Amino acid sequence: MSEIRPFAAADIPKVADMFQRILRKTDRPATPSLKAYLGELFLDPPDFDPDIVSLVHVRADGSVSGFLGALPMPMELNGMRLRAAVCGTMMVDGHAEDPFAGARLLRAFLAGPQDLSLTETANDVSTAMWRKMRATVLPDYSLEWLRVIRPAGFAAALAASRFGAAAMLAPLARPLDAFLHRQGKGTEPQWSHVAPENQNGAFSDTEADAERLLELFPALTANFPMRPQWQAETLRARIAHATRKANYGDGIRRVVSTRDGRAIGLFIYYGNKGGIGRVVQILAAPGQEGAVIDRMIDHAARRGLVALRGRVQPALLDAMMGRRIGFLHASSSIVHTRDPALIDLFRSGKAFFNGFAGESWARLIGDRFD
């Protein structure tokens, strides 16, 4: 008879093998680096809680056939501490042999001691499982946004991501984008350029080190009634994890300030010239969301990126309107709790979730383990 039990160090080789085959879709063996990171992330996470643990599904013969990664994340609501857990990596080996293994893992996770169970990476199959267990899908947290900066370059980069030979189109895209930029310059915002008002000099952005981020994260999330209970040492660990995402490109961490040096926001993204940048976090003081988004787009444009994409925060949606930002759905953000009042906070966008308040900071999303 199969069972669910806590993830242990002895399970790492099997889980790493599943990660390669099921999530990375490669037959290459798991590297020592990947195995070490799985142990670091899921056996000693930044906000370690001995009662909130990752889980494995074990067949009757004792072999591990499934895994669910649980990341503790203390939250606070108007000064009250809440225990939250983020369901990260979830996978099942041999699904056809035991189609209910994933459901058993999820049910065991939701039965844990946490007040809130969350995920931001649920695919269609796992979303259906969450729904059956009376969880709430959060549409405003589940959207991804896309801002094209260089249309021809974006098309070439998109083609190259599917067909490697299409990378040869990139040099041809540059003069076309330059032409489109000249045609649109000085007019209303277009997909082909950054509007002049984004560069009016009222705001500037400068590089942020880890200590500056440690200072700004709590300050810029303080206006959310429901937010992570950031502790300096655990937030520092998340920032360290997020330093490298080699599959996405170079990491960029910038603080946006007014002319007198007052910080009004920050943005963190990854990307290289000619590529599509991945934004992990945008934070802004109330009323300054548009300025922060503009500085981020302008910075990416100056670095030669062809587009930016990231996960929506409800607090940013209004500012994104009118900035030629499109929206799509790739995975779902979901909350499960026995307290309806907590669900209402998420539905109304008053909870800070996704990005660093989720799992996107972890290296498993976007990094290589060569």
UniProtKB/TrEMBL annotation:
<protein>
    <recommendedName>
        <fullName>GNAT family N-acetyltransferase</fullName>
    </recommendedName>
</protein>
<dbReference type="InterPro" id="IPR016181">
    <property type="entry name" value="Acyl_CoA_acyltransferase"/>
</dbReference>
